[in-house]
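Example 3.
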Amino acid sequence: MSCAPGEPCEEGVKRRRALIVLGIMGALFIALSAASFLDSRNQVVPATVSYAGYDAIEGKRVFQAWNCMGCHTIVGNGAYFGPDLTKLYGKVGPAWMEAFLPSAGAWPTSGAVQLQLQNAAVAAEAGVDSIDAYLAKYPAAAERITRRGAHATLMPNLPLSREEIGHLIAFLKYTSSMNTEGWPPKPRVDGLAFAQAAPTSASPQPAPIAAQSAEPASEAARGAAVARDTGCTACHASSTQRLVGPGWGGLYGTEVALADGSKAPADDAYLTESIVAPDAKIVAGFAPHMMPAYGTMLDEGEIAAIVAYIRSLGGEHP
Amino acid sequence: MIRIEYQTQRLSLRFFMLMLVLFFFQAGFGLLLTAQHIDPSLLAGTLNFNIVRAEHTNLGILWVLCGFIGAILYVGPLLSKRELAAPALIKFLFYAVIAVVVWNVVAQLYAQQGLALWYMGQPLLQEGLEYLEGGRIVDIVILIGFAILCYVVLRTFPRVKDWNEIHWGLGLGVIALTFVWIFGMFFVARLDLQEYFRWYVVHYWVEGVWEVIHISLVGFFLVLMFKADVKSVGFAVFWGIALVWLSGLLGNAHHYFWIGTPEFWQFWGSLFSALEPLPLIFCFWHIYLDAHQDGKPVANMPAFSFLLGSVVLEQVGAGILGFTMTFALTNVWSHGTWVTLSHAHLALFGTFGMLGLAAAYYTVPQMRDLAGFDQRPGRLAFWLVFTGMLGLGFAFAIGGTVQVFVYRTLGLDWFGGDVAPAMQVAKLLVPVFGLVFMVGVCLLVYDLLTLGMRARASDETAPAVAPSGWRRPLSGWETGLWLLAMWVFGAIITLGLLSFNLPTVREGSRLFPYLMAGIGYPGLLLTTLLFVARFLRSLDARGQAATAAPGVLLGHALP
Amino acid sequence: MSRERIIRMGVAIVASAVSLALSWPYWRDFEYWPESRAMWLAYFALGFVLAVYVFYAFLGRLGTLFLHDALERAQRLQGAATGDSAEEHKP
């Protein structure tokens, strides 16, 4: 039954007409889809993007394997728990991401970003090699360092490997250069001027180290300040807790089991070497190439101060 | 009472029971997510948010599928007037579903170690794509499961020339269920192309194909419950499905606005998804008319409540809330925020989840050979989950509006420092309504699992009173006014989202969007709540008027 | 009957025009050849015609839905008057 009695029943015609229109729509959809992925559209493809020798397609595999979309969004799709990652690379630049990803539980400090710039490949990708030029080029990185530096994040420390971090940054470099047709909309105001923005705390940026050394505080206290400012504490806890690297608490003087099966005493020489050339001795259970070499960034006095700080955190004094 | 006519219909019972268990765990994971939103350090490193969320979305899809399978197995023999073909395959399918669920729940945990087990370019364990988190192994097993369902349904159905519209809807539905699933089974290197195909599964599969099955099943349950005329239901089923595809085929483009595809999609997606509520309005009137065809009391109120809830939440969640954020001009703001969550929860649970629950309430008493059952727990459970879900929709929508303003308009992107604290009130509201929902889920699961196994409480009914006030019969005009009120609030929400484009708002005034959201969302959700209350009360009054007359049937057999 | 159709067509045209206005992509940049001015005109025209069809079909079918209801109601009353049960509906 589809029409009133006594009237011509056109139901069959109407249904056929609906199916024909549906067919037209299907053809249109296929045509539009084909036009969406033509080369002439000039959309960036991951096969053409690499970052410091790392591969964007591999990066997409890393992105999926860790289910990043389960907390973040990418092109706006995902879980709304963390910020959208699509344009992040273009905003904060490679050195900030290099500093962030190995120890995602804490926000990078200026020292941590500066350290990444010592790496020629990262500096080349960033297009600058001094921290001041970097912060001028990537104001979002500067804002993050000032407001969040050394604070804890809401993200867990993920045990990403050195390769995974490189690929992941390559993938985000690719998404950052994608044409997303004007999304997300660019804010017209400086959000920091509004009450919704958390007040910037003054504490995470302590006075420059040079000023402190004039007033000879204890060597260990100076070391603690250097360690915080350089970003060491993003990965190393002052307790025995494992963050990204081994905890410093109770470390000094113990016998450290190394990845190659041997043992080494955690004395001044060992700690100094671990700061200057971290890959010389890898502690059992940790991945190599995770920690950058700090020899070029810290002077001998600063390294000695950090060692003194670690010594002060307890352990078996020889 | 009606008896089970075909013994193989009883095979649906186990799928409904499995559905209830999965539903319970899915809601539990959801509650855990709300706790992690408030304290992100909760279980961090042990059970990270992304793992819990993957379990939550995947179990959500799996229990809805269990409900579909159960309902299809129940109606299959009735539609074919013969037993199901290959019941052994159905029994196998049941164990396969359990295996898939257990495997997938465990496999998702490996995202915490970044382990996807890549083999020949494909992730075997899990693949970290929203809604399609399952790895290739589980994808293939699910594909085989759909193929089995397809085979059983098509072998059971009569010859194609004897098919009516419900046969066509279910037949094409199960074929497409199998076929469209395949689009989610490849690793795609390009992000734009991967998102393009991901939405084939999430939109065409969930919205398109599930909707076809949904309309067919709602139609057939109306035939069963109200003895509606099969031919006129067939008409409604055909045009319901036709309108879904006439609007939704190009309407899918609303997912292609910002994923890197060209901007012409913004026009096509906006225009055609503006039409997507039409089939839902059509379906809404269909259920109203059929429920009022004969003035007889509704024998199984819990089943009808969930069926009505399904169609009404489809109207509100998918239709109205979907409409508000489907235009490129509103979606540019709502995209990637909690505003989407509000729509997704109401639409997915409402439309598909409630249909499975309706089918369970309709069929379980029959399969347990009960002459009648205590309907009060079922009705209370309906109100708890219905209110809880509307409340969740409200909390997500308000949180989303704040998020759009802080995150997009002001451009503050520190979630821990700026965005999450601004959304704090909404974040606290979510578990409040989540708990209401969870209590409803527990009651529902307990009631359906033990239906007929506990002593029946005395089924006293209130004394018959003259149907007046909220109990008087619901006229078509009044229904129209309710629907109009919902759409007026929907229009207010749309204007609120549009207002983010205004220069004053872009310069930092939040007054207009907050005001419109503050009126629109509570207005829409309260109207929905009151309308369903009004609808069900008017049907109750029929039941009481008829209690004097003996021989009230539990359900109606297919003529 | 034809008056009804004209009203439906009118409503469908107005509704499609409103939808089109809400969907108007004022940010067009004409950069890509499928987004040239001529193609956009074609999109608007084709989109409008298809939308009018969908609205028109919806309104017509919704009318039929109510017509069916009225017919069935009349049949039922007739059935009750002649003493037949409602079971007589042919599946």
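Chain B has 18 helices and two strands. The first strand of chain B starts at residue 118 and ends at 119.
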